[in-house]
């Protein structure tokens, strides 16, 4: 069934989106690897790494759009799932270093040797198998989201209250991961990776492959998210977003739907984090910073929430702007620009960039008037 | 509102011995307080299967709180809330469970899913699997027929593709009633269905409810006496959280205490 | 409101009981018993022994120097202090030729050590300083401690008594006796007696009764140092002494434990008052308008920078006003933050009513802009904000050290809380604000201009954040990130306490503050914070609307 859903024809802009991604997944690595640097069409490796990073961000934004745009859950802690996925991948990469570390310990990563630890903590066991690490990438953030969501949604924590405790969640994790004795490298996090599945992470070919994988992951993420929001369950999600208690009174267990979509979204964010880490070469506790999680939300808002494509677009646009800004003489003004973006988008562009483009079908995006109209449940 | 003209003595609303097994809904000695204020005070009420009952009462009489208790939004401090011949204790269930048991509710303020089409609003309400899994893998099968029938009943067939948010106030009220019918509940709770409606719309709504009452059990809460009179059913008057009087509209409007409460004499 | 008041009163009463019992525990301890005066001959002024001792410096061996120090110190000669101080500083010189001792003044003059008179004629050619090593240095310190016991300055005498208490040098005993007999200041006398007790308690050849009395005196002192002295006495003492010792240590341990509870409570209240200051403005805006102002922390920061600017202006143009800088900064900080707050409300939030999540994002954007603006104008580093005299220093209550700045901040928070409570209850604005909090639609239909109330509420909430900034400038680093450190905590306070109720905010702030400080010793600062976050997260699940939530119909609107 779900397979049928996945290949169901996307709408117009979805088709364009998927086509661009598929083309990029094939062309960019080819243009990078096959053409000599002198060629006009050559894509430099630095650009491949940069855009690979953007694609991970796009997947993260997509996951956030799924909960915020379609179910009204404004998570200000999605960075936690992203970072946990990243840490799980980082742990695999650390175990691959082997004796090539500074202390050349066959099992323990450098920071553990440095802390005079004698054996691997139990939660590091098994991470030298990629399959196990891949499972953990999905399972740990997914389990956290499930437990957290189950508690929060069952207790009907909604609106800004939920936003605040998601932020407290990522804040608590940040404080925890900063501690050396938690066993995740403390302040410095995990870095100095060597190999992934036997390939050098620094190698040009590996980078190109990671780029392609990120594009594929984004395509898959989009298809899954689309399948969910187009199903009847997706209609229930939107119903919950717009009139939660009404949905409950016609017999839907709102908490189950919310927990489901929150967990799915967390797993997608975690995959984004896992693909991000080998491409940037480091994961540290600052990824948990609450400010990051809020920034992810603005990507979605810029692109247009409740549109999926918009979220991905927003992530790429904002990050492209950020890179451009912060590498030039404009660097001191980036935060002004980002701050202004928050203000202007929420006031003048509540439906984001995609909201400016008229669509044939009345999309599921919350239109500005409707979002403001019933005043939702303002006090909630 | 009330007309004290006819002076038929009405039985005071004393608790009579009831046969629980004959009632669809059975409330006994229910009390709810908010910060010391008794919104519902030893309320007892009984509804037979197939009955339509109108509930009236001044502001703050506890009408909405009573609905909240029946639908699981508020839990009673003390008292019994039993459903389906006394077999189900509603006080221990949450809103979704109660809705799935077959109790539908229409709110005072029309709340439809504004960003869904009229059709999808009905689809979501249709009696069907409510689980996440079931709805993730849902296929439209036979639903279209039932949706069409419901839309026919509420007269919104022509608007099926419109977003519910773009409907007029009266149309939203009907859509909400349509969603109630689609749930195919055993008991319908309808809170102020004609508030803010034009006279013509009010009349249509009364006919609609009477039509529904043919094969459903209903509780209708309303302020509009003309509308209640038009329904022509047994009326329960609530005051300060308990039953003040019960009987036909003529009986209760002749009741001195009812008149007192309504006119503040 | 009434019920909440009762609950709060109960909480305060419980706090008072806790504090009271802790103080009571210390007050119950046995009354100090007078020590039997030591039967030791008072040292007579003895010029001969002084001269004899002084000569030993000329030998310049460590043993002779040690003996010389003891002799000079014991002689009671008024020159003794200056001689030993000179030795300490390497200014005590001897001439190998004539075996005489000289003393070079710090200013450069030269005196004869034995008489203290400036030398006549030229300096001897073969002068060299008397050498010291660590052993000698310790002897010097002990001797100086004993000697300054008789200084005319009470503060120096007190210092000396404390030094002797630390060194527990039995040689200082005679000097101590003299000092105790002459002492008139009770505080110094007490310190002197404690010093004597510290020596006598561990002195094997002292009378047993004296030693027990000394132990009791130390027990009554009851601090970590006294415990250290008692614990340092080797076992194998006579039985009665051993028992007194064990009892005294237990008593001190209990007392210390009680004081550590009081201390945690104090730190907790102190942290709680800071949280209260930071959160109370947020509670108002959240309560009245249902919006989360993510830029609230930046209002605090603006208040702190206003204080900094006020002090800058005072420093450059009117240094005499420094003591009043905080008093000047308070209204200015309120005004600055209130104006910025009102601008934010009129310029941004007004357009986002009924969309609390969007408001959250927009105000976050504003917070980024404000932070960066301050960073651009004042630099990213910490700025120095000075403390006026009344905010500096500390005093001791029993086993508790209370710093003035913390105390004043608690008082300040209390005043603001009470003032705000009064303003909400007795002013027109307060009445209207409460009306809007409870039922916005009803209030607006009763001709309350909700737009105006929102703007004023926002200004008030932000102004109070500015006041918090003045207070925080005294205990925290004034940097562009100042506000961010408080924002999550303030949210938790508001959410924990419940919306629309200032008492809830008070209880929330105090419970989080106290809980934090009580968790810290067990879990460490960071883990304690994590534990607290988890507790609050779990609590919110249990009571999604906080401790003091509005109930009933008000919730629906």
Task: Please explain how this structure is put together.
The complex is a heterotrimer of chains A (380), B (265) and C (557). Chain A contains 16 helices and four strands. Chain A is mainly α and 380 residues long. The longest helix of chain A is centred in the first third of the chain and has 27 residues. The C terminus of chain A is likely disordered. With 265 residues, chain B is α/β, with parallel strands linked by helices. Chain B is 34% helix and 23% strand. Chain B has ten helices and ten strands. In chain B, helix 3 packs parallel to helix 6 and helix 5 packs across helix 6. With 557 residues, chain C is mainly alpha-helical. In chain C, helix 11 packs antiparallel against helix 18. Chain C is elongated. The N terminus and C terminus of chain C are likely disordered. Chains A and C meet through helix 6, helix 7, helix 12 and helix 14 of A and helix 14, helix 19 and helix 21 of C.
Mean pLDDT of chain B, rounded to whole units? 85
* Sheet with the most strands, sense and barrel status of chain B: 6 strands, mixed
Specify the oligomeric state. heterotrimer
Mean pLDDT of chain C: 81
Identify the notable features of this structure and list them briefly.
heterotrimer; B: 265 residues; alpha/beta; Rossmann fold; 6-stranded mixed beta sheet; 4-stranded antiparallel beta sheet; 10 helices; 10 strands; disordered N terminus; C: 557 residues; mainly alpha; ABC transporter involved in vitamin B12 uptake, BtuC; two-stranded antiparallel sheet; 6 strands; 67% helix; elongated; disordered C terminus
Write the layout of secondary structure elements.
The complex is a heterotrimer of chains A (380), B (265) and C (557).
Chain A: H1 2-7, H2 12-33, H3 45-71, H4 78-97, H5 110-114, H6 130-154, H7 159-178, E1 190-191, E2 195-196, E3 199-200, H8 204-230, H9 232-242, H10 244-249, H11 254-280, E4 282-283, H12 290-303, H13 309-326, H14 334-348, H15 352-356, H16 368-372
Antiparallel strand pairs in A: 1-4, 2-3
Helix pairs in contact in A: 2-8, 3-8, 3-11, 3-12, 3-13, 4-6, 4-11, 6-11, 8-9, 8-11, 9-11, 12-13
Chain B: E1 25-34, E2 37-47, E3 52-56, H1 63-70, E4 78-83, E5 88-89, H2 95-101, E6 103-106, H3 118-125, H4 132-136, H5 143-154, H6 169-182, E7 187-191, H7 199-213, E8 217-221, H8 225-231, E9 234-239, E10 242-247, H9 249-254, H10 256-263
Parallel strand pairs in B: 3-8, 3-9, 6-7, 7-8
Antiparallel strand pairs in B: 1-2, 1-4, 4-5, 9-10
Chain C: H1 2-28, H2 47-56, H3 62-75, H4 80-88, E1 92-95, E2 101-104, E3 110-112, E4 127-129, H5 134-148, H6 154-167, H7 173-182, H8 186-201, H9 208-221, H10 224-232, H11 239-289, H12 296-317, H13 325-347, H14 356-378, E5 394-397, E6 400-403, H15 404-426, H16 428-438, H17 440-445, H18 450-472, H19 484-497, H20 502-523, H21 525-542
Antiparallel strand pairs in C: 1-2, 1-4, 2-3, 5-6
């Amino acid at each position: 069934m779900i397979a049928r859903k996945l290949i169901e024809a996307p709408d117009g802009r979805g088709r364009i989106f998927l086509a661009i991604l598929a083309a990029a997944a094939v062309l960019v690595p080819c243009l990078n690897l096959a053409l000599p640097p002198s060629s006009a069409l050559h894509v430099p490796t630095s650009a491949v790494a940069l855009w690979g990073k953007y694609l991970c961000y796009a997947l993260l934004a997509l996951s956030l759009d799924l909960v915020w745009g379609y179910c009204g859950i404004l998570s200000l802690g999605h960075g936690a799932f992203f970072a946990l996925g990243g840490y799980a991948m980082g742990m695999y990469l650390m175990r691959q270093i082997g004796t090539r570390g500074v202390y050349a310990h066959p099992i323990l990563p450098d920071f553990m040797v440095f802390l005079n630890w004698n054996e691997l903590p139990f939660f590091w066991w098994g991470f030298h198998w990629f399959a196990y690490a891949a499972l953990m990438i999905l399972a740990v953030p997914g389990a956290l989201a499930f437990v957290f969501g189950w508690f929060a949604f069952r207790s009907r924590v909604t609106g800004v209250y939920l936003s605040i405790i998601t932020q407290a969640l990522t804040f608590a994790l940040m404080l925890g991961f900063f501690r050396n004795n938690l066993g995740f490298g403390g302040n410095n996090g995990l870095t100095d990776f060597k190999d992934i599945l036997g390939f050098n992470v620094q190698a040009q070919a590996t980078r190109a492959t990671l780029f392609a994988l990120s594009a594929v992951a984004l395509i898959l993420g989009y298809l899954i998210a689309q399948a969910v929001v187009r199903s009847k369950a997706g209609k229930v999600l939107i119903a919950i977003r717009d009139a939660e208690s009404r949905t409950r009174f016609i017999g839907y267990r709102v908490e189950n739907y919310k927990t489901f979509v929150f967990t799915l979204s967390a797993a997608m964010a975690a995959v984004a984090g896992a693909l991000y880490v080998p491409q940037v070469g480091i994961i540290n506790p600052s990824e948990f910073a609450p400010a990051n999680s809020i920034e992810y939300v603005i990507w979605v808002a810029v692109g247009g929430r409740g549109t999926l494509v918009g979220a991905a677009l927003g992530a790429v646009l904002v990050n492209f702007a950020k890179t451009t800004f912060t590498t030039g003489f404009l660097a001191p003004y980036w935060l002004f620009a980002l701050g202004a973006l928050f203000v202007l988008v929420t006031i003048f562009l509540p439906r984001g960039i995609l909201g400016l483009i008229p669509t044939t079908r009345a999309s599921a995006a919350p239109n500005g008037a409707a979002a403001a109209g019933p005043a939702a449940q303002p006090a909630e | 509102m009330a007309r004290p003209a006819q002076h038929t003595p009405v039985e005071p609303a004393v608790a009579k011995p009831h046969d629980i097994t004959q009632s669809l809904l059975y409330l006994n000695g229910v009390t709810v307080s908010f910060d010391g204020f008794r919104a519902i005070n030893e309320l007892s009420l009984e509804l037979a299967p197939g009955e339509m009952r109108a509930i009236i009462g001044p502001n703050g009489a506890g009408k909405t709180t009573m609905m909240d208790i029946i639908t699981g939004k508020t839990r009673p401090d003390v008292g019994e809330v039993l459903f389906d011949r006394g077999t189900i204790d509603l006080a221990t269930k949450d809103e979704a469970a109660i809705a799935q048991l077959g109790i539908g509710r229409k709110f005072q303020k029309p709340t439809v899913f504004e960003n869904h089409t009229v059709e999808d609003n009905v689809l979501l309400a249709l009696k069907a699997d409510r689980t996440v899994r079931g709805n993730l893998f849902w296929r439209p099968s036979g639903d279209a027929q039932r949706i069409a029938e419901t839309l026919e009943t509420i007269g919104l067939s022509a608007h099926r593709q419109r977003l519910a948010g773009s409907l007029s106030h009266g149309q939203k009220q009907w859509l909400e009633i349509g969603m109630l019918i689609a749930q195919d509940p055993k008991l319908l709770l309808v809170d102020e269905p004609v508030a803010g409606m034009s006279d013509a719309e009010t009349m249509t709504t009364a006919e609609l409810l009477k039509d529904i009452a043919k094969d459903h059990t209903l509780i209708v809460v309303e302020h509009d006496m003309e509308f209640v009179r038009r329904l022509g059913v047994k009326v329960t008057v609530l005051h300060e959280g308990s039953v003040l009087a019960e009987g036909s509209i003529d009986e209760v409007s002749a009741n001195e205490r009812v008149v007192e409460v309504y006119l503040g004499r | 409101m009434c019920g909440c008041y009762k609950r709060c009163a109960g909480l305060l009463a419980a706090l008072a009981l806790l504090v009271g019992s802790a103080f009571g525990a210390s007050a119950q301890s046995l009354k100090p018993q007078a020590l039997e005066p030591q039967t030791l001959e008072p040292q007579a002024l003895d010029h001969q022994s002084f001269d004899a001792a002084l000569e030993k410096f000329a030998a310049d061996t460590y043993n002779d120097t040690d003996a010389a120090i003891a002799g000079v110190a014991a002689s009671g000669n008024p020159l003794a202090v200056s001689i030993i101080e000179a030795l300490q500083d390497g200014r005590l010189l001897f001439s190998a030729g004539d075996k005489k001792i000289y003393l070079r003044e710090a200013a450069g003059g030269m005196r004869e050590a034995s008489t203290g008179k400036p030398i006549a004629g030229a300096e001897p050619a073969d002068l060299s300083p008397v050498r010291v090593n660590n052993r000698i240095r310790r002897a010097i310190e002990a001797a100086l401690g004993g000697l300054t016991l008789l200084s005319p300055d009470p503060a120096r005498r007190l210092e000396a008594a404390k030094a002797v208490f630390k060194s527990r040098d039995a040689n200082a005993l005679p000097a101590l006796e003299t000092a105790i007999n002459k002492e008139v200041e009770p505080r110094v006398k007490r310190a002197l007696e404690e010093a004597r007790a510290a020596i006598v308690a561990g002195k094997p050849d002292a009378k047993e009764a004296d030693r027990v009395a000394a132990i009791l005196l130390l027990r009554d002192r009851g601090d970590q140092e006294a415990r250290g002295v008692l614990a340092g006495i080797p076992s194998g003492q006579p039985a009665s002494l051993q028992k007194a010792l064990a009892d005294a240590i237990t008593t001190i341990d209990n007392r210390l434990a009680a004081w550590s509870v009081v201390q945690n409570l104090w730190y907790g209240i102190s942290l709680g008052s800071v949280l209260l200051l930071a959160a109370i403005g947020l509670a108002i805006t959240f309560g009245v308008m249902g919006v989360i102002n993510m830029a609230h922390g930046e209002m605090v920061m603006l208040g702190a920078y206003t204080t900094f600017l006020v002090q800058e202006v005072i420093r450059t143009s009117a240094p005499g006003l420094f003591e009043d800088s905080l008093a000047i900064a308070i209204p200015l900080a309120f005004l600055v933050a209130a104006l910025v707050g009102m601008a934010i409300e009129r310029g941004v939030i007004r357009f986002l009513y009924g969309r609390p999540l969007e408001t959250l994002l927009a105000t976050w954007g504003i917070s980024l802009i404000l932070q960066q603006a301050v960073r651009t104008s004042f630099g990213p580093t910490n700025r120095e904000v000075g403390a006026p005299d009344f905010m500096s220093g500390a005093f001791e209550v029993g086993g508790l050290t209370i710093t003035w700045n913390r105390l004043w901040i608690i008082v300040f928070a209390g005043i603001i809380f009470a003032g705000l409570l009064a303003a909400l209850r007795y002013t027109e604005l307060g009445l209207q604000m409460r009306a809007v909090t409870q039922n916005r639609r009803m209030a607006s239909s009763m001709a309350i201009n909700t737009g105006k109330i929102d703007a004023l509420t926002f200004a008030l909430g932000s102004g109070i954040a500015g006041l918090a900034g003045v207070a925080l400038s005294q205990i925290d680093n004034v940097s562009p990130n100042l506000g961010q450190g408080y924002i999550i905590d303030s949210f938790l306070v508001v959410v924990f306490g419940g919306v629309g109720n200032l008492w809830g905010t008070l209880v929330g702030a105090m419970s989080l503050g106290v809980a934090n400080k009580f968790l810290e010793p067990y879990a460490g600062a960071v883990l304690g914070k994590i534990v607290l976050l988890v507790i609050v997260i779990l609590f919110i699940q249990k009571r999604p609307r906080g401790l003091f939530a509005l109930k009933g119909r008000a919730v629906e609107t």
